[in-house]
Amino acid sequence: MSSFQKYYAKLTETADFLLHNPELGYKEFKTSKKIEDEIHKISPGLKVEHYLDTGLKVDLTNGSQKTIGIIAEIDSLYQPNHKLADTNTGAAQACGHYTQVTTALAILNEIISNHRLEDFGANLAFIFTPSEEFVDLAWRKEQKEAGKIDYFGGKQEAIKLGIFDDIDYCVSVHAIGEDFDERTIEINCDLAGFNFEYFDFYGKASHAAFAPDAGINAQSIATLFNTALALQRQQVKDPNRIRFNPVIVGENHESINVIPDHIKMGTDLRFFDIDNAQKLMNRFKQAAEGCASALGGSVESERQVGYLPLISSKSMSAIVKDVFSANEKIPGLIEDRGYTMAAGDIGDVSFLIPTIQIGYGGWNGTIHGDDFTLVDPEFVLAIFPEFVFNSILKISNNLDQVKTYKKTKEEYLTELEKMEK
Ligand SMILES: [Zn+2]
């Protein structure tokens, strides 16, 4: 019996605890404590480094030149309608991140209990990262204003703090939100980057029936702006790799008989090409100003930097494919989708160093929805972690086949600054 099978019963309990204790980004205190407890159950002597209150890092060094980071996201999504949502915070494991944690623990358990560290051609670092989901934005904004964080993504903050300074390659995993007929993994799937932009349209209130001529309708400006963005789509380069979704945000305090004097809108802009995205964001601003001025109102805009796109390492994925071809437990492989317009702060890591994300099925319901559920625990908690272990092992012993690059933290922060303008 492999250590993955032996650890399966224990890991089922851990998964159950995490599933029932979902927490929002930067506040994963119970999750973080649980992970640390489980690490110390695997080996009481392991040194656990703490960062950002809830982030954890365990370095396993075998004297190699290079280090592979193994990522597990520890936060939950905001999905108050999920059947296992926390009733106070609305947090729920609707993105399956808790099984990234169990995957990392299963790999760590194999390395320690079967003394496997020397088999690897690289040092390993287990990095448990907070706050991947881009939610709870009002609270994060307060934290930012108070100087506690600069970025909403936990990996972004971790990079800034130097947690990735000594990492040369990165392997991450993520649940796939689809039903499959057979056990399935996915490789070579890039993720989009994104930015948020907010527009406050200002008009002038007046009695809507008695004196509409004295008012300037902010709602009409917003409608015009929505139309401008819809027409803008014709002028988008590479339209299949761009998304934007303008919506009215915030509460409406107006009454029906008053011409509204303020409407707040927001849109994301999802992209793969940062320069193209910058151009488009500037056109959005130009359209907002034009629409406001056309009806005699005004606009203020504010940008919230999101994540960089994940450009996954094709050469690392090729090694994972070799491991897949030799494996007998997982029959399904998706390798040709190329990209999705979903995003994650793993993209920021891929800006620094060669990075992959291996997707795994075993779920049903809608990812990020109210019914997302693990339906194949044996696959997700035992078979898949063993597959990831074998993949990292093979990558570590074939690093000469991996196309390598390493950008500095400073280069990364400059890239983010570029997105802010
Ligand atoms: Zn996720």
UniProtKB/TrEMBL annotation:
Tell me which InterPro entries the record gives. Answer: Bact_exopeptidase_dim_dom (IPR036264), Peptidase_M20 (IPR002933), Peptidase_M20/M20A_hydrolases (IPR052030), Peptidase_M20_dimer (IPR011650)
The regions listed as transmembrane in this protein's record are: none
Q: Which BP terms does GO give this entry?
A: folic acid catabolic process
Instruction: Tell me one GO molecular function of this protein.
Output: para-aminobenzoyl-glutamate hydrolase activity
Sequence ranges assigned to domain Peptidase M20 dimerisation in this UniProt record: 200-289
Pfam families reported in the protein's UniProt record: M20_dimer (PF07687), Peptidase_M20 (PF01546)
Plastid found in the keyword field: no
A single cellular component GO annotation: cytoplasm
Q: Does the keyword Transcription regulation apply?
A: no
Could you list this entry's UniProt keywords, alphabetically sorted: Carboxypeptidase, Hydrolase, Protease
Q: What is this protein called?
A: Metal-dependent amidase/aminoacylase/carboxypeptidase
